[in-house]
Amino acid sequence: MDRFVILSGCSGGGKSTLLSALAERGYATVEEPGRRIVERALAEGGRRDELPGIDPGKFAHAALKMALQDRADAMRLDGPVFFDRSLIDAATALHHATGEAGWLARLAAEHRYHRLVFLTPPWPEIYRKDTERQHDLAAAEAEYERLLDVYPRLGYETMMLPEASVEVRVAEILRCLQVHLQT
User: Fold this and answer.
1) CA dihedral 38, 42, 47, 51 (to 10 degrees)
2) What is the CATH number of domain 4-182?
3) How many helices (H) and strands (E) does the chain have?
4) Is residue 89 helix, strand or coil?
5) Average pLDDT of 48-64?
């Protein structure tokens, strides 16, 4: 779907901040499934067995299920929709955690996004652990390397966002999308 745009890349690279800035400009946005799962698991009544540090496979399955629902829900939205991570990210995490490989190709074929995927690179100066992000920068960088490999293999073009202000990054995203929509 050409209007579904992915923000992916390194954990702690500024994706959520970019998503907030795009929402402030009136664009439809979908928050990262993984952060929502962790928030839910840490809240009273949440499923703690879905925490990535407890059962990475169960966490990845939950993220995949949520990402599928997010994409279905986004079909009702008008205009571009920006996703903080995607089905591809969840399927890549699932493959890494459990070895399950069948999801990637199937999801890539059945649930396409805009052909240009925006990636946030590792940016140690802004990386922070928080309540939802308990892994270290090395784990985030390893995840990033897996995503750098998988998106092009699935037919996506990747655009590395600069280490720059939120305003510069948002302007670059919108400029690139405008150019891509004209081609």
Assistant:
1) 40
2) 3.40.50.300
3) 7, 5
4) helix
5) 79
Rg (alpha carbons) of the chain, rounded to whole number: 15
Tell me if residue 128 falls in helix, strand or coil: coil
Q: Collect all residues with Cβ–Cβ distance below 8 Å to 129 and sequence separation of at least 6.
A: 135, 136
- What is the residue-averaged pLDDT of the chain? 84
Q: What is the Cα–Cα distance from 59 to 61, expressed in whole angstroms? A: 5
User: What would the pLDDT profile of 153-176 be if each residue is shown by its tens digit?
Assistant: 999 999 999 988 999 999 999 999
Q: What is the side-by-side strand order in the sheet with 28-30?
A: 28-30, 81-84, 4-9, 116-120, 157-160
**43: its two tokens:** 């809240």
Q: How far lies 54's CA from each of 47, 57, 60, 78, 126, in Å?
A: 11, 9, 12, 38, 26
Query: Measuring CA to CA, which residue among 72, 4, 70, 15 is closest to residue 37?
Result: 70
- Grouping H, G, I as helix, E, B as strand and the rest as coil, residue 2 is coil
| Burial class of 62 by CB neighbour count within 10 A (0 to 12, 13 to 18, 19+) | buried
d(Cα 142, Cα 154) in Å, to the nearest integer?
19
Global confidence as pTM: 0.86
Write out the DSSP string of 44-97: TT--GGGSTTT-HHHHHHHHHHHHHHHHHHHTTS-S-EEEES-HHHHHHHHHHH
Length of the chain: 183
